[in-house]
């Protein structure tokens, strides 16, 4: 056999470098999307803002895309994932709180009575959050959440909640990032509940997650600095809070925003009000067979988790916001389950 | 002349790709630093956390570095830049407020009486901020700040405030980023005062700036969504607020933190308390000739802007925080003035 000469070695190493340099892209972007107006809208928008010869060109540093989480990136039924976490936490902590057996909303949680929990209203919800999310350090909370994600399973899909995210939306995140967008989560969910999983599930690092926050306090404990989670909600990142959160955490107006409920209306309005082109989309849950169907737009049943009233549907139509039909626009809902 | 054959064209394009792939690095990093313990500490730390064979290796996504701004990245004397902005704003708005001629702290500002302004205390400062920073939209405020940076000049250095930043620190930011660090500002200054200039001055995008925030409110005005700046301070990103802000905005503990005053103590403590290696540094202003000298550590005069008390110097020594002497460790303070 002939020894490889220096030229061929050199060629070989150049080829390696060239191969490494090619950005990794899926063979077909948005492969789980049917060929529909929704898919077309995404591709056209990305083409416009990335084309230097287009009047709608946007510099990469301003390609900010914000995504709601519950119902937009992952399932929010039969209840918000964070609520399932809070319920499990009540069950775990119940032996230390015998009084919960007779005290609402804890009694309702222990009896799995979702209606009675709902009846306890906002006050009950805050009590649940305070009891299950505070009075511990940020490090302790992170460890608890991380553990919970490993073991908890969605009641219908029998898989980890972290695998109940939508494959078409994951492809959308990847497609935008491949086109030099910076992708953010802007969710009503707790920021420290989401951060332990966003990198693994969505490829979104902790510093690109905006959410509802609990007040924290810096303290020295045994000579070590800690942040205690206080029994107080600091900021609610929902509805009119979303533009506030975007401005505070990101400081730039998104050119693309994605939501699925009345909680996302103001974020989409804020996104719309920029000077250049912008893309606004709402995921509509009309697929009871593969996921869930709720509205009450289009006559679907109302839901306390991710309500989509008729006037939101009307505003979407009037404002050129694209409504994604899960049933018609998505070939697949979830990725195949991991081993 | 022979036409280039396909192989040579192919070689040529591969070579181009290879050249493009080489990361662009400065010929010598930290060129404005004297060969000192401080410079050595930076280089050793970066070597440790980027060396995959080191027990102190840190994955790129966790290479978070936080920088105070006033006195750490740019000059904070004779007063904080944002205070100079507020003073100018009082002068601009004075014709609409004849009552300011007799009303403190405005009277003091209009008479350039810094002592009387200081005597008005925290209450006076908040009044100044409310009068000059709120009651307008976020967009209006951004435009005002952007304009001010274009025209205002530092009283001693006679150059734009945006050119009163320290060249050695700029090189440090670049050096860290070249080593896959993500650089953040974590400052007591107003987040929306800093964001209009951080990209141009430091290469730090708006979404990597943490600071003190004014409360804002989402409103519809003439059918257009706006964010109004309310007369209320929402969050003070100073002292024990810095770890709180870091946790809230970034969600990861920094492995490197840089400050220059008692306001940065808790940030450095928080940085220290991680599990792996960390670098903590304090810029000490001991160079009256080229910049300013104040302390009161080491017997330098005290200052309300960037106080460095003796117990901070003691804690630095005990805790292995590196104190940077501007006088001894920096070859140059500022970059040559721009044309």
From TrEMBL, chains A, B:
GO terms for molecular function: hydrolase activity. It comes from the Bacteria. Pfam families: HAD. The keyword Phosphoprotein does not apply. Keywords: Hydrolase, Signal. InterPro entries: HAD-like_sf, HAD_sf. Residues 1-26 form the signal peptide. The keyword Isomerase does not apply. This is HAD family hydrolase. It comes from Blastopirellula marina.
